[in-house]
Write a structure and sequence with these properties.
The complex is a heterodimer of chains A (124) and B (371). Chain A is α+β, with helices and mostly antiparallel strands. Chain A is 19% helix and 37% strand. Chain A has one domain (3-122): Beta Barrel (OB fold (Dihydrolipoamide Acetyltransferase, E2P)). Chain A has four helices and nine strands, in the order βββαβββββααβα. In chain A, strands 1-2-3-9-8-5 form a six-stranded antiparallel sheet. Chain A has a three-stranded antiparallel sheet with strand order 4-6-7. In chain A, strand 6 and strand 7 form a beta hairpin. The longest helix of chain A has 9 residues, at 114-122. The radius of gyration of chain A is 13 Å and the shape is globular. The relative contact order of chain A is 0.25. Chain B is α+β, with helices and mostly antiparallel strands. Among the domains of chain B are: 12-54 and 144-233, Probable tRNA modification gtpase trme, domain 1 (Gyrase A, domain 2), CATH 3.30.1360.120; 283-356, Aminomethyltransferase beta-barrel domains (Elongation Factor Tu (Ef-tu), domain 3, Beta Barrel), CATH 2.40.30.110. Helix content of chain B is 21%, strand content 33%. Chain B has helices at 12-17, 38-47, 67-71, 122-132, 155-162, 203-214, 224-233, 260-265, 271-280; strands spanning 21-25, 28-33, 49-53, 58-63, 87-93, 99-106, 113-117, 138-141, 145-151, 174-179, 182-187, 196-202, 219-221, 284-291, 302-305, 308-319, 324-332, 341-346, 349-356. The longest helix of chain B is centred in the middle third of the chain and has 12 residues, at 203-214. The model of chain B has no long low-confidence stretch (mean pLDDT 96). The chains are: A alpha+beta (124), B alpha+beta (371). Chain A binds chain B through residues 33-34, 36-37, 39, 55, 57-60, 62, 81, 84, and chain B through 32-33, 37-40, 42, 225, 229, 294-296, 298, 317-318, 320, 325, 347.
């Protein structure tokens, strides 16, 4: 079973072996409102933890998505390009954004688990 | 964040009670959206009836021997031709003919003119009017009335129950009516492109009147977010964004707001410059812009043609009814023709776009039976 991690930027990572699937949390999707456009990274792109990697736009505003971890983009959910509303409908499932081949799994130690993230959101 | 320095409209607590997400806007705490969210609120207004608290806007009376004639010294509209029970859109000009703000001027009764100005420009507008018209007309801000807009294709059938006489008015007519026992000033207008009314209510009874209106399930409260996307889709300007004091009404694409009679009389600020712009063409002009792809081009996006910067987006986003991104902005006049291709620089990348006729979504005003 995949391990789940969360960031303070309201992203989730589902990690299986050295692959992390990344998306935004239900909290983030709700805060953004109706998502109308998603810009995904190119496959093969090297990303640094904290670097800009994708864009998500709601009716209201444009927001950047930051890479939660260092590695190489190995997949992008291109279905979001035609159906960006999937992010609102199923943010932690079909609404995933991209997959990263994780360079250094020790970076995961800096991220939150579900309990820590829920406590973090409850404080907002 | 503190709300302590923000003003409240007479409807603020009701808007909060209805689930409004309150944000600071022009010094007021205003609902940007409700639980449904901007897209659903937008579509609800286009299909049913949306109710907006716009009490943050400035309502004022202009009185004097001939307030219409006085006002014409600082606006290019035909104010002297404004008949009783009519409303007109015009713009407030600085001494060079630059646009300070846009406003609605109406004659709902015999008490001079009624003005409605934008919230963010209220102080500046009042200053300009008071100073420029000193000795010939007197401005009195109205501080005891709220203002709501009810907009959408079902508005008239809903208000036929509440205020039947008002439903006989056509677009841009106005007058006094009785709504749930209170005297209200109503115009058949708004800023969404839909049929509807703007209603000036006594503040003390605003909440009770709005509760009565919202008891009809076809009416829902709508936030400022949808107000912005609704006005953008029908090509209406946002003051201070889609025009500034750097623009005359001609370069702002509002030449229709400078009628023939005023062009002939040339007796408003910047008249000479505007008449030149009308024959010569201004340097840049306001146009509609449709991105060819799906990426919205928002305010501040730079516009390029063959690698040369030719303009900038002044309003832009996603049009829920249009079903795609829409923008407006200024481009060099020679590129302003419909169908002209440009590039939008979004996050460092060029996105192709096409200059498009506005409105993006057809306006749906009531101009009378069979009209």
């Amino acid at each position: 079973m995949a391990d789940l991690y969360f960031t303070e930027e309201h992203e989730w990572l589902s990690v299986e072996s050295d692959t992390a699937r990344v998306g935004i949390t239900s909290y983030a999707a709700e805060q953004l409102g109706d998502i109308v456009f998603v810009e995904l990274p190119d496959i093969g792109k090297q990303v640094q933890a904290g670097g800009e990697v994708a864009v998500v736009e709601s009716v209201k505003s444009a927001s950047e998505l930051f890479a939660p971890i260092t590695g190489e983009i190995i997949a992008a959910n291109t279905e979001l390009e035609d159906a960006p509303e999937t992010v609102n409908e199923d943010p932690t499932g079909k609404g995933w954004f991209f997959e990263i081949k994780v360079s250094d799994k020790s970076e995961l130690d800096k991220l939150m688990d579900k309990a820590a993230y829920d406590a973090f959101v409850a404080e907002l | 964040m503190t709300d302590q320095n923000l003003a409240s409209t007479p409807l603020k607590s009701l808007m909060e009670e209805l689930g409004g997400k309150m944000v600071p806007f022009a010094g007021y705490s205003m609902p940007v959206q409700f639980a449904a969210g901007v897209r659903k609120e937008h579509i609800w207004t286009r299909e049913n009836c949306g109710l907006f608290d716009v009490s943050h806007m400035g309502q004022a009376r202009l009185r004097g021997d001939d307030p219409a004639k006085a006002l014409e010294t600082i606006v290019p509209g035909n104010m002297q031709g404004l008949a009783a029970n009519m409303q007109r859109y015009t713009v407030l000009l600085n001494d060079d003919g630059g646009i300070i703000d846009d406003l609605m001027v109406s004659r709902p009764d015999d008490d001079g003119l009624m003005l409605v100005v934008n919230a963010a420009c209220k102080d500046k507008d009042y200053q300009r009017i008071t100073t420029a018209l000193a000795g010939i007309a007197e401005l009195e801000p109205i501080n005891d009335r709220a203002l709501i807009a009810v907009q959408g294709p079902k508005t008239a059938e809903i208000f036929a129950k509440f205020m039947p006489a008002a439903c006989d008015m056509v677009f841009m007519q106005c007058g006094h009516f009785t709504l749930f026992g209170h005297d209200v000033i109503v115009s058949r207008s708004g800023y969404t492109g839909e049929d509807g009314f703007e209603i000036s209510l006594p503040s003390a009874h605003a909440e009770e009147i709005v509760r009565e209106i919202l008891a009809d399930q076809r009416v829902k409260p709508i936030g400022l977010g949808a107000r912005d996307s609704l006005r953008l889709e029908v090509g209406l300007c946002l003051s201070g964004h889609d025009f500034t004091e750097d623009h005359t009404p001609i370069s702002a694409g509002l030449a229709w707001a400078v009628p023939k009679i005023r062009r002939e009389r040339k007796n408003f600020p910047g008249a000479t410059r505007m008449l030149q712009e009308l024959t010569a063409e201004p340097e840049d002009i306001r146009v509609g812009i449709c991105p060819d792809g799906k990426a919205p081009a928002r305010e501040g996006t730079e516009i390029f043609k063959d690698g040369i910067r030719v303009g900038q987006v002044t309003s832009g986003g996603f049009g829920p009814t249009f079903g795609g991104p829409v923008s407006m902005g200024y481009v060099r006049a020679d590129l302003a023709n419909i169908g002209s291709k440009v590039d939008l620089l979004i996050r460092g990348k060029n996105y192709p776009a096409t200059i498009t006729k506005m409105p993006f979504v057809a306006q749906n005003y009531y101009r009378g039976k069979g009209a």
